[in-house]
Amino acid sequence: MANIELVNYIKAPISMVYQVLTTEEGLAQIWTKKLRVKPQVGFINEFDFNEPELTKMKIITLEKNRKIVWKCIESDKEWIGTMVSFELSEQGNKTTVVLSHTDWRAVTEYYKWCNYNWAMFLQRLRNYCEETTVNQ
């Protein structure tokens, strides 16, 4: 099995980064505006990317300001059964975000495209959190 593993450093409080990754308001700023999200273990987040199918992620783990784990239960066939996690840590005025998208069955063209898009996701997360922090 293949995994995507990425890291980014954000000059914003860990609580802000966690909130962006776990709420409709936050994820709508960095991923898609068409979504249904609730920060509750067992809840099935829904993301609409104007594709034939919705992406549905079941929340497996929520450790406030530390860890978020989703399991993909509906989406593109290559995503179904994969896990997405965000591990957060804070040192000084920086929050480290480690994003892992694990349990891919194969390294395909779609896997490579998703790898690129997860990197862009982390960049949007960083930009949004840092701009919001500056403007507060």
From TrEMBL:
InterPro entries per UniProt: ASHA1/2-like_C, START-like_dom_sf
CDD domains to which the protein is assigned, alphabetical: SRPBCC_CalC_Aha1-like
Gene3D superfamilies found in the cross-reference section: 3.30.530.20
Pfam families: AHSA1 (PF08327)
Domain Activator of Hsp90 ATPase homologue 1/2-like C-terminal: 11-129
Family according to the record: Belongs to the AHA1 family.
Protein name per the record: SRPBCC domain-containing protein
Organism: Sphingobacterium tabacisoli
